[in-house]
């Protein structure tokens, strides 16, 4: 560690970079050397960073050490900045899809999506399976189970999860009276033979970064709900409510989304249902864990740097982030406005599709709306000529267990479907990660500073987040502009790769869920090595606004889930859902039941 910087990087024009498999582009693995700290050392570090002059010096050294200055802030980059990851509509044909009409209501889109699904899986087939939206609909329609019965079981399960034996910390707030009221209304509709949609009576949990009445939106803090009143449902929540979904409360999250572990000193640290001594991932920690434990087949998250997909992978569920602009951001906390979007955590790919169909934003003029294709999952097996781009050095920068599971998954896709994996180079991956960090941090700081943070006693903020906010506020305008130049380069690289490939395939995380240690529960922790490994593959989806999805493909030697990720062309969600469904079905027989799991459709009272 020192004050003398090596020379800033001079980038050659993006068009001169070789994207082929034999490219001489140098792959940089994240340069993270800091040891994990928690408890008193975290407090001391926060105090240092908040000390005038000394804090600035320490932050300068840290940014030099992790290459932010060399690769981003002080770099010489020829491209102009690209400030938003917006994509014009491109009429790229997708295979085996149903075209949704622009004027359809959320319930009509749900009906169309359900028509795209294959038959329900045989409950006696090998492997663990979670109950899906259609399982709940079937039970409700038969009258054997009602939404009220399920809601009561849900409330009992949440109470059990919140007790001292499990201490799962899944929810920040839930209102039993409101949940039962919604369930009673849904039960009456089924009794009258008039459910609003296949989602009527289905429980959906909502990350506490998304507005949902009657709750305040805390963003995982102890203070934001008091300073920013929630006056209406977020757009995506309103669409689900219009389909009859039972909104089941606000799930826990890493404070302000400023971490990947799900450790929250204010509302408790969300535990992984596969192993309660492990982290759930973040920042949509409670949503991922709630779906994993069987409390709901769908939950909403927000994804600004993998915050839906990373916990989904660690908890063994589906995590789906659509193209930027496909879902409305209205009612989502504006923590990082050019990278953050709503996302979906689901028990299965089919559930992700149904929820996605309900939530798609078609509020604008018909002529400006991207075409909405819904994948005909009944015919996924007949899709030929799929090409998956794989960057070997990046793909292999993961644990041995993850690498082995993901390699095996690609072999299965080739054997079952004949889909081809092609070798490419995705240049400047670490540069992109750092540029995204500068962007996300700068936007979070700008969004919160004047309106909230400047009026707040720092003691109300968690210690680890105080450190993050100190770093966020230290980035210069030059660093932000250079980050947007790197965004422009990466947009070019990815668009070129998509000219010859249908998707880019990577592991979802570089490590599986790591230990949740007691010394972090009250202060949070600084574990930059694990944080960098967890977020290694998530950045392109947010920084470039690309659709991405993760699905479970196996387990490590400790029985913890491993996720595989597909990153797609802009607006090609249907293709991604096809790929994820094929992968899910190929691995279904090996699916394992989590340690903490609830059966809300049991016929036993």
From TrEMBL:
Residues 171-577 form the Amidase domain. It comes from the Eukaryota. It holds the Pfam family Amidase. Coiled coil: none annotated. One of its GO terms (molecular function) is catalytic activity. This is Amidase domain-containing protein. The lineage of its organism: Eukaryota, Viridiplantae, Streptophyta, Embryophyta, Tracheophyta.
